[in-house]
Structures
1.
Amino acid sequence: MKKQKICIIGDGLSGLTAALVLSNLDIDVDFIAENKQEKKSSDPRVTAISPSNFKFLINYLDIKDSKFFWPCKKINLFYEKFNHLHNFINFSEGSKNLLYIIKNDNFKKILFRRIKGKKNIKIINKEVKKVDTKNSCILFGKKSYVYDLILLCVGRSSKIISDFVGKRYIQKDDKEIALTSIVSHNINISDPRQYFLKEGPLAILPVNEKIFSFVWSVSNKFQNKNINDLVYNKLKKILGNKTNINLNKIFTFPISFKFNSIFSKNNSLVLGDGSYNVHPVAGQGFNLIIRDIMKLFQFIEYNQSLGLPIRDSEIIKKFVSSRKPENLLFGLGINLTNSFFKQNKITSPIKDFILKDINKFNFLKEMSIKISDKGIFQSLK
Ligand SMILES: Cc1cc2nc3c(=O)[nH]c(=O)nc-3n(C[C@H](O)[C@H](O)[C@H](O)COP(=O)(O)OP(=O)(O)OC[C@H]3O[C@@H](n4cnc5c(N)ncnc54)[C@H](O)[C@@H]3O)c2cc1C
């Protein structure tokens, strides 16, 4: 069988990770990014990665890269009631790490560095304008390049995605945005916290003891207000008025739950934010994508072990039927949790009752840790 060739379009976290992981198979990879890495605008976010996903990823990185990940052993959850914050649940499993947090810019840099060192990856800096899914090829002007598999990792707003997935999707748009920035401070914060505030959930994600990133999901009407003052005052209130905080530039990201019905056609597959978006409240978006990449790797590896080609095989079909239900369930579960904590007439009166003793239910806590670590189906095994 001739050497198989795949194409990965997009150099966000999905494309970079897919290229690095899949290049460990006996295949050639064309990795297409619209901008040169040096010209990329910075990504102000951080990503929290679950222990199983971290263990999987670190296999493909250098041991030196692990210093960029901040390991966390505890997670504390709070909710706001009558202007007070109640710590209603704490997660910990002794000395085990529950999360690894990394700045996206550092993450992309180390992934890119590893990709550059791979002999079977060819990096091409071009914007892909057209994908011919029928003939499994990419078109650059009049030239076409044929592949055994095309992965579109081009994010949620790329034009080629809207052409690809069409209008069939499940969407819940609460007209929210995520505010995020990096904060340095003079106290010690080594573990993440999630605050369910009246305006929306705010997560604190440390990248070391003196620096954290926050993600605050709020109504998009906030955009018209003085966001800097609002965030600054909120953080002061949460961390204590005596805490010195230095707030960097605040960035906003659109958020909604969106799940495309179609994300594969013939030998082309959409991976990452282009196929589905989950609410960032649980920090699960990229964790689901890592599991998708793991699964795709397994299916291709299995095919290759039987000497079967990738093109026109069952790989994409098997991938879609194994990952679609879990990703959809996850997205819906996150929405449900988010709705429960919103101030509303239905859940607000029962919130106290439900949350009062929740910290005592160890089974529930263990199950939540397992699910966010390994995913729903894997943790039920
Ligand atoms: C505020 C916030 C916080 C988050 N925190 C977490 C977290 O803690 N944990 C977690 O698991 N997830 C988190 N997520 C989700 C996670 O960040 C995303 O799922 C992930 O970054 C998606 O990456 P992507 O590569 O799919 O898309 P993108 O980052 O959008 O990348 C797409 C890339 O494709 C390139 N591209 C687009 N079109 C073309 C083209 N035509 N040709 C060539 N290249 C093209 C673009 O230049 C871009 O580089 C968070 C999301 C938000 C908004």
2.
Amino acid sequence: MVNNFKYLGFSEPMALAMVEALKVNPYPNPRVGALLIDEQGNVKAAANHKQKGSNHAEINIFEQVQVEETDILYVTLEPCFHSDTSPSCATEIINQGVKNIVIGDIDLDIRTNGRSVSLLKDNNISVQIESNANNILNPYYENTHKKLKDIHYLLKIGMSKNDYITNDASDSRYITNEISLSIVHYLRATADCIVIGKNTLLNDDPKLNVRIPGINNIDHNPEPIIMWGGSTENIESAMKKYPTFTFLSSMPSRENNTYCDTSSLSDVEEYFLERKFRNIFIEGGKGILGSFLRDHKIDSIYEFKSNLNIENGIHIGHNYRAEIDKNYHMNNKYQLLDNLLTTYTRN
Ligand SMILES: NC(=O)c1ccc[n+]([C@@H]2O[C@H](COP(=O)([O-])OP(=O)(O)OC[C@H]3O[C@@H](n4cnc5c(N)ncnc54)[C@H](OP(=O)(O)O)[C@@H]3O)[C@@H](O)[C@H]2O)c1
């Protein structure tokens, strides 16, 4: 199975555990996936945490198979230390005889926050940590535990080497390569909703769903949200053409669309929070991303760049770079064949 999480620096088994995590949405708990592999690297069991109150991913592994000393357990998030709401996974890991564990991220929940790692090490278990898995799978959870805010906005942007986001000379609406597109789909799978503007809907005819090759049992698709604005033109036909999309429009008299003054992003945020949307995926176009950047809403940016220049189309605009230079810092750069992914976080 193709799994392009490896391009973001994750080992193959962790990448598989991350895909397990993406198959469900156990909100308000974080998505967590786990994988047990044997000495030869064969997968013995894969599991996730399905919903609040149900088994954690590690326990679902132990219910499937017996652990051998040479096995390695991969978990996307540090096992829980506490036993107030469910049995402590760290204690269960020790009891089950696990000798090697690889963890995708430290759990910032103050009841755990590194304590399970210490406990496992104290019990002679080899512990390795691959950073950032939870940050990708559950950014709002990281925000909450860093006491930032209970919502996270991720901006994805695809552009040419010279910063164009559309190409008038091409019939394809894609600017970036297949690896970039597949990573966009992983990121979409972590989102509660995907937000685009009216023009992007009308120009691109997008599906706004999660399409990951080799994985067909994702039972949670993010909700497509169209920020339409106040115009009545074309809205009826657009709503007919895309009956499963949510149209945010400030036309109160219309049927089926959701009333929301999209010129006020605090009203839009209120709508997201009412719907319990916490991982917000902003896909553009230029008008929409410009508004969210200007209002200081965007927490992280995933910028996918091709190695080609575009002559005619929409340029992202110089305010975009100025905004990044002023309010963001670069986290990572990943070479995705001939594309470059740069990630930024708000200061
Ligand atoms: N390369 C990429 O990553 C990428 C991603 C997405 C889109 N695109 C491209 O971007 C192009 C469209 O960009 P665009 O700038 O023309 O349009 P857009 O951002 O898709 O939509 C802008 C329109 O959305 C409405 N809107 C509602 N609330 C808004 C708000 N708070 N702020 C701004 N607009 C709001 C406005 O309609 P009213 O004026 O009627 O109020 C506005 O004209 C498409 O051709 C698409 O291919 C590229």
